[in-house]
Design goal:
This protein has eleven helices and four strands, in the order H-H-H-E-H-H-H-H-H-H-H-E-E-E-H. The chain is an all-alpha fold and 337 residues long. Helix 1 packs antiparallel against helix 2, helix 4 packs antiparallel against helix 10 and helix 6 runs antiparallel to helix 7. The longest helix is centred in the middle third of the chain and has 33 residues. The protein is globular, with a radius of gyration of 19 Å.
């Protein structure tokens, strides 16, 4: 009972903390006059990626589990695309009016994801010096910062600011809520990760499976909440921007932290066959769903008896995405465990 209480407290802390951070960030964006799409792709995405970052730190330092940390970011990216975009599209169809900008962001996500897949294969196949792995982690984190500067420069050059009409509050209150949100994230992730690892021990479930499913779902709750609210308000653009941005920050930023903090603790280096490891299988699946999403919105999918149009994610696409996520979760639990 105590284990489930810890997990519940962790989820509540993560969700409430991220909500406060996102709300304060949106308010600050109104004060500093930053466009809505830029908010979604940068500020909101960064805010909703903080649970993955906090949970990863807790997994590495409190639970001492690289399996949970890696499974968390891989599973979160899969949940972001299949579950969250699926739910959003099911509630209200997503249309991509600015395909030039959003297509470029989707291409970046696909390119980074494929690059990380190859990096994993290299780690699994060859014995890479620890210093090289740690340096790669630092490089990934630098790429995140550089990416943010590039996005900000493009925003300044082609500003499309539209004021958010929700109630605004003072700048000082925004920073207070931001600090409170960060504290809730830290303690929420702590309880959640400790509870998740204890659950893995009690039920005999592999830690990598816990990271790929339970932890990744819990840390994806802020994106899910943001997506549902956006869908209800019929403003799905911010949800798409949040997902694309969040996936980039997860892969480069959070994965970079793992490489930097635990460069010699990768479990994929300890197995004989890379395809017998659920983490490797899941990262291939992450690449597949990322490319599936990009192909769907760029070209559409024609199966003869079933057609999915380009430049949008309709309710049928949402149902298919959700079905894929359910299948992925079931396979993880029953086959890979």
């Amino acid at each position: 009972m105590a284990v489930f209480l810890q997990i519940l407290l962790g989820v509540v802390g993560l969700a409430v903390g991220a909500e406060l951070i996102v709300r304060s960030a949106i308010n600050l964006s109104n004060i500093y006059k930053i466009s809505g799409y830029f908010i979604g792709f940068t500020l909101v995405a960064l805010g909703t990626s903080l649970p993955e970052f906090a949970a990863t730190l807790q997994a590495l330092f409190e639970a001492h589990s690289v399996d949970i940390a890696l499974g968390n970011i891989i599973g979160s990216n899969i949940a972001n695309i299949l579950l969250i975009l699926g739910v959003v599209a099911w509630i209200y169809p997503i249309v991509f009016p600015d395909m030039k900008k959003q297509n470029k962001q989707a291409q970046i996500v696909v390119g980074i994801t494929i690059g990380i897949v190859f990096f994993f294969l290299v780690l699994a196949k060859f014995k890479i010096p620890v210093i090289v792995i740690a340096t790669s982690g630092a490089l990934f984190m630098c790429l995140v910062v550089m990416f943010l500067f590039i996005q900000f420069a493009q925003e300044r050059k082609n500003s499309s600011y539209k004021e958010n009409h929700e109630d605004t509050f003072s700048q000082s209150k925004s920073y207070v809520l931001l600090i409170i949100g960060l504290v809730l994230l830290i303690y929420g992730s702590r309880y959640f990760i400790i509870g998740a690892k204890q659950a893995a021990i009690e039920f005999g479930i592999a830690e990598s499976i816990i990271g790929l499913t339970l932890v990744s779902f819990g840390t994806s709750l802020p994106e899910l909440a943001t997506g549902i609210v956006s869908a209800v308000k019929k403003q799905t653009g911010i949800a798409v921007g949040t997902i694309l941005g969040s996936n980039i920050y997860n892969i480069l930023g959070v994965f970079g932290v793992i490489l930097l903090v635990r460069p010699g603790g990768f479990p994929i280096q300890e197995v004989g066959s890379i395809f017998s490891n659920p983490l490797v299988i899941s990262i291939f699946f992450m690449a597949f769903v990322t490319m599936l999403f990009y192909w769907k919105i760029r070209f559409g999918i024609n199966l003869g008896f079933l057609k999915f149009k380009a430049n949008q994610l309709g309710r049928n696409s949402g149902r298919v995405f959700i079905a894929f996520y359910i299948i992925y979760t079931v396979i993880n639990y029953y086959y890979l465990n």
